[in-house]
C-alpha cells in the first residue's frame, strides 16, 4: 500500500525555545490551533483537541526533544487521521527557527487529505505569527 505524506516548512524569527513552548503547551496550541484542548508535554500523554466537528482529535505524544522535535500519533479522530503521525522538527540558526512539519502515513490521497494539507499551512502561518509577536 502506497502511503502519502504532507510536508511543509516555514521560517520563524523566534527562538526554537519559543516555538517548542508554543507546540507543547495549552497556552501555545490554544492560540495557534484550538482553545478547546488538553495538552501535556509528556511522552505517552494523549492530547485532546476539539475542533467543533462532533468528535475529539486525540494525539499521543510519542517523542519530545526539547527545542528540537515533537512527534504525535493519532489514536482517535477522523478515520483518515487514525494511525497517522505528526512530526515537527525545529532547528535554530541566527535567530531564525526552521520548522519542518510532516503529517505521515496517510493511506490515500483524498479530498480530506488535500483540505488538511491546506490547514497545516495555515497552522504554520498562525504559529509564525504567534511566536514572532510574543515579545
From TrEMBL:
InterPro entries: ASHA1/2-like_C, START-like_dom_sf
Domain of life (superkingdom): Bacteria
Domain spans labelled Activator of Hsp90 ATPase homologue 1/2-like C-terminal: 13-131
Listed CDD domains: SRPBCC_CalC_Aha1-like
Family annotation (Pfam families): AHSA1
Family: Belongs to the AHA1 family.
The protein's name in its UniProt record: Uncharacterized conserved protein YndB, AHSA1/START domain
Organism the protein comes from: Sunxiuqinia elliptica
Lineage: Bacteria, Pseudomonadati, Bacteroidota, Bacteroidia, Marinilabiliales
